[in-house]
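Bumping my old thread because nobody answered last time. Still need a sequence for this structure:
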């Protein structure tokens, strides 16, 4: 089997070329799959540690439950599979993608079976190392009365794809979307923070994905004596902000240079976001997050 090509599929580690799924999968037609984006980091001691494995796999299990998907793996089993996958692909710094997708069902009734694939690959920071130019999207995040916002649901990413495409077409790097009430919500695949007068502000939970990186950054900020307020804001407020950044597993902490034609006055290297970006990079490599033994 090729290196970096081994995936886990329904109980087996196989070459990705030999993996098959049905074209009648309900996920393919209607988008009701659930997934996670997880990172593993080479620690300072040289081993590899999956960052917040428990939080990610618990979110995956909650997502499956909210979508009425039959899914019986335990968090421990999922964590063990992820470590084995890294080992088999000889990966230390890696991005891990579990996806729960449905069996055959052409109606909208809940499918009776589900499948699990897990793959891993080396992936650079999603938004790169430079600060990004952000566009205030013409799209809104889904209404929480239409979708459970705490679920990482495949179908909801069609909204993210539309917003990203719009931003790229207009020459921006990323989109920032508002919620259905016109309050700033999140990026296409990231949570959002801004800095004003030495304090941090971020949209509250409810109309956004409860990001695991967001929670980590709030903790790190408070440990460093930085006040963080979870409160709604309108896009106009951002025109008074000093700096801003995105957080997410794939993007990590990504500085924002500008939103539309407003350029943040504080240089990224002098911002609270930059300080937390450095802290985050140390934090993910420092702790030993492996709480389960490899089977
Ligand atoms: N919002 C959305 C819409 C996302 O897709 C992601 C990425 N999972 C995030 C926020 C950040 O979440 P996390 O920090 O858990 O990766």
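Sorry it took so long. Here it is:
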């Amino acid at each position: 089997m090729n290196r970096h090509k081994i995936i886990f599929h329904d109980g087996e580690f196989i070459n990705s070329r030999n993996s098959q799924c049905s074209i009648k999968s309900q996920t393919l037609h209607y988008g009701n799959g659930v997934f996670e984006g997880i990172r593993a980091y080479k620690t300072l001691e040289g081993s590899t540690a999956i960052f917040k494995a428990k939080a990610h796999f618990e979110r995956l299990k909650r997502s499956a439950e909210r979508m009425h998907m039959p899914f019986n793996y335990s968090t421990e089993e999922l964590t063990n599979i992820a470590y084995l996958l890294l080992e088999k692909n000889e990966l230390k710094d890696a991005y891990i993608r579990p996806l729960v997708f449905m069996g055959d069902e052409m109606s909208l009734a809940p499918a009776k079976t589900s499948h699990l694939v897990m793959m891993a690959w080396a992936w650079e920071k999603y938004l790169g190392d430079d600060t990004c130019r952000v566009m205030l999207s013409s799209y809104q995040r889904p209404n929480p009365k239409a979708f459970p916002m705490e679920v990482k649901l495949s179908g909801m990413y069609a909204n993210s794809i539309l917003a990203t495409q719009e931003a790229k077409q207009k020459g921006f790097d990323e989109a920032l979307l508002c919620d259905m009430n016109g309050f700033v919500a999140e990026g296409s695949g990231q949570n959002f923070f801004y800095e004003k007068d030495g304090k941090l502000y971020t949209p509250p939970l409810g109309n956004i994905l409860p990001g695991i990186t967001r929670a980590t950054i709030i903790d790190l900020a408070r440990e460093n004596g930085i006040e963080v307020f979870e409160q709604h804001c309108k896009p106009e407020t951002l025109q008074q902000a000093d700096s801003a950044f995105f957080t997410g597993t794939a993007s990590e902490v990504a500085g924002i240079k500008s939103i539309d034609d407003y350029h943040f006055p504080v240089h990224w290297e002098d911002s609270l976001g930059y300080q937390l970006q450095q802290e985050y990079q140390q934090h993910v490599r420092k702790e030993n997050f492996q709480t389960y033994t490899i089977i």
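Confidence is low (pLDDT under 50) at residues 290-295. Let me know if any region looks off to you.
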